[in-house]
Structures are given as structure tokens and as C-alpha cells.
């Protein structure tokens, strides 16, 4: 790749000089930040820099869940975190999903709201009474946030409905759904181009120096100067910042096409650490980070036998019992997590802002985080 100094006058003038805002990261947060900046600054020169030829984090590698909290996840969060913080996070997720739909239409997102189920297996029987007793409280709190009553309910028909094995019961969330991650990211890019926002791929930011009149951004192709810098790299943020955010790898598999697949919806298990859904007559299944938290705190984008074996076991023994199904795809994506599930949105200097730590809920909160980050400038 050519260094900036090797580019023509036209290239440097058009794309790399006199930039008002540089946004690092062509994911949900980065695109949303740039789009909201465009609303506020109609004539500003806005440039997004992305290290890969496609988004490198989790924005185009996630499972496409439009979700805001399963019963077991919320119970676990309430045991660990202040109640008000938990519901603030849920509200942010819900509001973020609504804001995402204001940017990209339901048809373009390919959003389908079939609901979601939290699967309860025999090893969780000890907490079943606690979960059941929580339903009225969860419904009361989510109604205040969403305006919908009876969001959560127990569903004991799931085994008969979809043929799952080794389940005790399940808890249904009627408002959650699924979308097409690839369609979403492509539309974000298209809207940015329509709004005269430049998106430059294959440029990795290695550091930056903030001065009194702007920021010098050190990249793999040379220095880029801008008046302001927004860092939206989520799981990769630790490479540039000293904030409370660390990478969390998520591993995913997708099966071959399955004739007459009748499973429809999104499904969670074990506090959301495992998740699966239908897509194009296939099953997408991911998770298992809790099997090796230390090992999965990495930006290395590979899959591991430990987690792949667990996902395959769930597929064959719980989701599609008795069926021999081949895997067509496997990959990993890098999320950003920390000591809290709430994102970090702030200015770290007059010219530099950050919007990171999506906590594995980038689809839900990413666009809202981008909006809030842009509003700081």
C-alpha cells in the first residue's frame, strides 16, 4: 500500500487534508458517529478510517440479535450490579434499537421480531423458582422502558414446538428479534457515502498526538491531521487507550442448509453466554466465552477446539438432536467488555472523544453510543 507521501495532489487534497473529524472504526458506532456529526455539521469534512477491508471488530461478525436482556442474564446482572444501573443499561439497549431503526429501515435491516427464548436446562433447575418469581418484576420494569406489558413469560411448549432436547422450560421475550448483520453494515456504508462521508479501508491507526489546534494521527500509511478525532474501535480500544475496556472474542458457527428447518427465532442459554438463531434455513450458533475467560480476552481472530466442541455438542444434543449436520462456516469476532456493561462515552481531551465498551450488545446500543459521542462535539 502506498504511503501518503506517495499519493497525488488530488488524492491527498480530496481525501486526506483539511479534515474536520476523523472517526476510527467502520462499525456500527463509527458509522453512527459520522452520520450524527453530519447532521450537526452539514459542510464538515468527515472521514472514517478502518484497519481492514471490512469492519474488523464485531459489527459485521455478530449473530444479528436485536436483543436487550434475557431472564437469566438480567437475574445475574441484578445479583452483581446496582439495580438502577441494570435498568439504565436495558433502557439504553432498547432506545438504541429504536434509534437504529430510525437510521436504517426495518426492511433494510431485514428485521424479524419472532421473539426470543431463554432455555433452562437441568443444571439450572436450582434457580428455576427464582426465575419464575422474577417475571412480574421484570415485566414491571420493562413496561416502563418499552411501553409494552407482559414482555416476559414462561413457555413450557418449546420442546414440542421446535424439537429441542434436554430442556426443563424456557422464558419468552416477545420484543426481541433478529436482523441481517451484513445488510445492516452495507446500508450504513451506503448512507455515509450518500452523505459525503469518506470511508477509507486498510488504514490502521497506531497512535495519535493531541495538540492545541488539532490531532496528528499516526497510521500505517503515514500521518493524518484532523481537527477532531473519535475513537470507536470497541474491542481494539486498548491498543490506543488506557480505559477500562478489554477484548472479548466471540466464536460462531453456521450449519449447512437444513431442509424443512422449522426453528424460527432467537435463543439464549446460560445467562446469554450461548446463543443461536435460524438464518437462511441454517442454524447460527455462538458463544462459550465463559469456558475460558482468560483465553478469550484476546484480539486474535481464530476459533478454538474447546469452544467449537462445546458449540457442536449443543447443536447435536440440544438444538438438532439425532440429526447429522455439517458446518459450513466458522469465525470469531472481537467485542469490547469491562468491569461494567455500560459503554464509555466521553471526551478525553478537547479534540478527542471515545465511544467504546459495548459489552457484547453492539447491535442494540452501538448507534445510540455513536449519537451520544457525536453530541459531545
Descriptive notes:
The chain is α/β, with parallel strands linked by helices and 377 residues long. It has two domains: 4-61 and 182-244 and 340-374, FAD/NAD(P)-binding domain (3-Layer(bba) Sandwich), CATH 3.50.50.60; 70-98 and 112-178 and 246-337, D-Amino Acid Oxidase, subunit A, domain 2 (D-Amino Acid Oxidase, Chain A, domain 2). Helices cover 32% and strands 28% of the residues. Strands 1, 2, 8, 9, 10, 11, 17 and 18 form an eight-stranded mixed beta sheet that branches.
Write the layout of secondary structure elements.
Blueprint: H1 9-16, E1 19-24, H2 28-40, E2 46-50, E3 65-66, H3 71-80, H4 83-103, H5 106-109, E4 116-120, H6 128-146, E5 152-155, H7 158-162, E6 169-173, E7 177-178, H8 181-194, E8 198-201, E9 205-211, E10 214-219, E11 222-231, E12 246-255, E13 266-269, E14 274-279, E15 282-287, H9 305-319, E16 327-337, E17 344-349, E18 352-356, H10 362-374
Helix pairs in contact: 2-8, 2-10, 4-6, 4-10
Amino acid at each position: 500500500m502506498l504511503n501518503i507521501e506517495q499519493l497525488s495532489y488530488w488524492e491527498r487534497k480530496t481525501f486526506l487534508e483539511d479534515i474536520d473529524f476523523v472517526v476510527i472504526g467502520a462499525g456500527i458506532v463509527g458509522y453512527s458517529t459520522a452520520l450524527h456529526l453530519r447532521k450537526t455539521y452539514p459542510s464538515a469534512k468527515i472521514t472514517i478510517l478502518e484497519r481492514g477491508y471490512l469492519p474488523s471488530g464485531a459489527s459485521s461478525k455478530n449473530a444479528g440479535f436485536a436483543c436487550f436482556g434475557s431472564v437469566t442474564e438480567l437475574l445475574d446482572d441484578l445479583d452483581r450490579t446496582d439495580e438502577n444501573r441494570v435498568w439504565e443499561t436495558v433502557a439504553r439497549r432498547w432506545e438504541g434499537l429504536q434509534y437504529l431503526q430510525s437510521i436504517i429501515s426495518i426492511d433494510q435491516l431485514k428485521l424479524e421480531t419472532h421473539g426470543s427464548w431463554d432455555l433452562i436446562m437441568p443444571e439450572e433447575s436450582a434457580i428455576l423458582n427464582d426465575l419464575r418469581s422474577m417475571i412480574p418484576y421484570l415485566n414491571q420494569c420493562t413496561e416502563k422502558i418499552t411501553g409494552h406489558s407482559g414482555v416476559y413469560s414462561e413457555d413450557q411448549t418449546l420442546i414440542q414446538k421446535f424439537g429441542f432436547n434436554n430442556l426443563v422450560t424456557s422464558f419468552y421475550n416477545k420484543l426481541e428479534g433478529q436482523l441481517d448483520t451484513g445488510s445492516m453494515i452495507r446500508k450504513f456504508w451506503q448512507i455515509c457515502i450518500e452523505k459525503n462521508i469518506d470511508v477509507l479501508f486498510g488504514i490502521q491507526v497506531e497512535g495519535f498526538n493531541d495538540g492545541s489546534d488539532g490531532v496528528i494521527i499516526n497510521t500505517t500509511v503515514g500521518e493524518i491531521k484532523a481537527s477532531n478525532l473519535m475513537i470507536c474501535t470497541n474491542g481494539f480500544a486498548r491498543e490506543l487507550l488506557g480505559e477500562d475496556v478489554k477484548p472479548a472474542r466471540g466464536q460462531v458457527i453456521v450449519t449447512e442448509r437444513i431442509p424443512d428447518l422449522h426453528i424460527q427465532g432467537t435463543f439464549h442459554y446460560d445467562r446469554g453466554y450461548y446463543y443461536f438463531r435460524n438464518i437462511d434455513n441454517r442454524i447460527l450458533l455462538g458463544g462459550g466465552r465463559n469456558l475460558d475467560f482468560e483465553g478469550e480476552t484476546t484480539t486474535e481472530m481464530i476459533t478454538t477446539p474447546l469452544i467449537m466442541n462445546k458449540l457442536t455438542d449443543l447443536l447435536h444434543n440440544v438444538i438438532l438432536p439425532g440429526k447429522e449436520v455439517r458446518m459450513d462456516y466458522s469465525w470469531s469476532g472481537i467485542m469490547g467488555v469491562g468491569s461494567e456493561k455500560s459503554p464509555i462515552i466521553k471526551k478525553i481531551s478537547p479534540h478527542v472523544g471515545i465511544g467504546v465498551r459495548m459489552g457484547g450488545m453492539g447491535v442494540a446500543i452501538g448507534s445510540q453510543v455513536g449519537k451520544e459521542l457525536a453530541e459531545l462535539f
